[in-house]
Specification:
Layout lengths: L1 H14 L1 H14 L10 H20 L13 H21 L3 H4 L1 H6 L6 H27 L10 H25 L3 H14 L13 H6 L4 H15 L4 H25 L3 H4 L1
Helix pairs in contact: 1-2, 1-12, 2-7, 3-4, 4-7, 4-8, 4-9, 4-11, 7-8, 8-12, 11-12
Length: about 270
Amino acid sequence: MLFKLLQHWALTPYTHFRLFQNFTRQDFYAQFTASVGGMLWLFLTPLTHIIIYSFVFAYIFQVRPPEGFGETRFVIFMMIGYLPWFAFADAVSKAPGLLLEKAPLITKVMFPVQLIPVVGTVVPYITHAIGFSVLLLYLAFQGYLTWLWLWLPLVLFLQFLFTMGLVSILSALCVFLRDLQQIVALMVMVWFFLTPIIYPISLVGDPAIQNMFLLNPMHSFVNFYRELILLGNFSMVNFQIIVPVSLISYVIGGLWFMKIKQAFGDVL
């Protein structure tokens, strides 16, 4: 039974590809409907955040990358962690409202509801992958490119699976617990500051506390990106964390969603 549920969950984008494609296109372009700036906001929003954080931490607090990163500028060090985080945070922040926004469709039309969290994760990652690709292109011309960059698509995919699992759980829970929208907003903000994105982990002086950061999967993702891109190092410790965490999140989130999706119509 569980295997069949997991199979339906994993194969949904393929068995309902046309519907998945239409939903993805619709949600992607809906971000720019009636927007003067249009797709320009894809770059302006993260760029504004990066400028503010860089000014505060690099120029006011004089934060610098760890010694092992050589002459890497702090803004580059931060962007490599911030841009993947922005995709994760955007998807998780919107998760509680995914099913609520589609309530009229869910209650009136028969369709695979599990497509909603999948699309709700795909669209933020497509959106923010553009900015991350531009950064990687710039760094490649700056001489950082190595063959280890071939691992980046896999790591991004693992982060996507990790995110999709959380999005599935949160979107389903919010059908029954509407206050979750406010809780998730606070959770994402706290999670951001508990992840060494705008500061290096070396600022945490106690080694025991540094080891506790390994309990935060996003720390492992961020650290893996930085070491892979800037140092050309494959961090086996972080890789051994993100692989099982991503798969577990994806499986648990999918099974949870598939088991309770029948109740959505009654509650919505």
